[in-house]
Specification:
The protein is an alpha/beta fold. The chain is about 40% helix and about 20% strand. It contains 8 helices and 8 strands, in the order ββααβαβααβαβαββα. It has helices at about 25-30, 50-60, 70-80, 95-105, 105-110, 125-135, 145-155, 180-190, and strands at about 5-10, 15, 65, 80-90, 115, 140, 160, 175. Strand 6 (about 140), helix 7 and strand 7 (about 160) form a beta-alpha-beta unit. Helix 6 crosses helix 7.
Length: about 190
Amino acid sequence: MEKPLKIGFDLDGVLLYNPARIARPLISIMKRKHIAIKRKELEFYIPQPGLQQFLWKLFHKSSLFLSPGFKRIRQLKDQNLIQPYLITGRFDHLKKDFKRWQKRMCANEVFEQCFMNSEDKQPHLLKERLINELKLDVFVEDNWDIVQYLDQRCPKTRVIWVTNIVDQRIDYPYKVLSFKASMKLIEQWLQYE
């Protein structure tokens, strides 16, 4: 392999195990059918200060621990096989928790750079911009709506989808059931690069 693979990793539901992501398909269907959520298909809700942001913080507490397979990132980086980047769509009011996770995962040692959505942009647009700016070869994401968007908008980047049991029926070439499985897929690609 001539150069390391440049890989971006989402945080919640990818690097951090989050059982609440199983609700994503239901939310996505509600958005598409305009049931209780009357927005464009791919427009993410940005919580307002006060109760909304407080509830958002509580929801993100469901990111419980580092996903199995996380240590493999550091090992592959130390072998100069990958250049990892952390890219999260978390909004600015979650900065304190983001910083706590960065410290806990020794992010400054593991990742080339860490990016957070500190300007409260639409998460899919932030990720698209960073994927293109960083010229990422691979991006690992758990949100199906974002995966579809990035797959269309970033054709030079392979987008791995960390799915869940509810969405298993959806056909997608880079679909895996766990973060650990995404790392195994990346390692298979490294053998053929």
